[in-house]
């Protein structure tokens, strides 16, 4: 029996392939998958899904382990075992906005794809803000006057720069994480251990 790994499509996909290759896995079936969403390799079955769905497949035990951004775990709090950080998908959360904007006389409006992370962050600092949930292109919100500032992921800073926005406050850093189904960890230890051992990184990864 082979373990089932749920992989986040998109950004993390390529970086995870490189990570596997560095560890000696034959990733050709994954690289040649075309539009297929399920692929078998010599070592595991892989399924490809959006980050939040990766967490759902792992939570329900359809996948034994998952590769997902820490942002998904923090925002959605799935009932999974958060096993270990991975040395890719590194970025940070920040509050950003228009450097020339003056402080509003009303409550600050924050646009974000991450309302739970944002609520928690401001609540812990005793600050009351209005949060507007967007699904993407969050940088537009302060440019068009929908919000004063945004809470979003920043990696290179290019998106902010090209839209005339700046980081106003660094929040915290994040990376991709390896998650596991709680039962799989107990019941399928023998088949999961070799894979998980090979994912462990001796040196500090973040
Ligand atoms: N600019 C970035 N740099 C590095 N990692 C990022 C960046 N943006 C997102 N990530 C990480 O990669 C994961 C997948 O991001 P990706 O943009 O591929 O999917 P998404 O955020 O679900 O967007 P989409 O809806 O376009 O699929 C995120 O959950 C996050 O952990
Ligand atoms: O600092 P950078 O390297 O520019 O990366 C940051 C951008 O990447 C992500 O957006 P994504 O490309 O996932 O698009 P989205 O706005 O549709 O979420 C994030 O939401 C920022 O917009």
Structure report:
This protein has 206 residues and is of the alpha/beta class. The protein folds into two domains: 4-89 and 175-199, D-Maltodextrin-Binding Protein, domain 2; 91-173, D-Maltodextrin-Binding Protein, domain 2 (3-Layer(aba) Sandwich), CATH 3.40.190.10. Helices cover 33% and strands 28% of the residues. The chain has nine helices and eleven strands. The protein has helices at residues 11-22, 28-31, 51-59, 70-76, 115-124, 140-144, 158-162, 182-187, 189-199; strands spanning 4-8, 38-40, 45-49, 65-69, 81-85, 91-97, 109-112, 130-133, 149-154, 166-174, 176-180. The strands form two sheets. Strands 2-3-1-4-11-5 form a six-stranded mixed β-sheet, sandwiched between helices. The chain has a five-stranded mixed β-sheet with strand order 8-7-9-6-10. Helix 5 (115-124) links the parallel strand 7 (109-112) and strand 8. The longest helix has 12 residues, at 11-22. The two termini are 33 Å apart. The mean pLDDT is 95. It binds adenosine-5'-triphosphate and 1-O-pyrophosphono-5-O-phosphono-alpha-D-ribofuranose (PRP). The site of adenosine-5'-triphosphate has 14 residues, from helix 1 and helix 4.
Strand order of the largest sheet: 2-3-1-4-11-5
Outline: elongated
Assign a percent range to the helix content.
25-40%
Could you say which small molecules are bound to this protein? adenosine-5'-triphosphate, 1-O-pyrophosphono-5-O-phosphono-alpha-D-ribofuranose
What is the name of the CATH topology of the largest domain? D-Maltodextrin-Binding Protein, domain 2
Report the order of strands and helices.
Answer: EHHEEHEHEEEHEHEHEEHH
Spatial separation of the terminal alpha carbons? 33 Å
How many domains?
A: 2
Radius of gyration: 19 Å
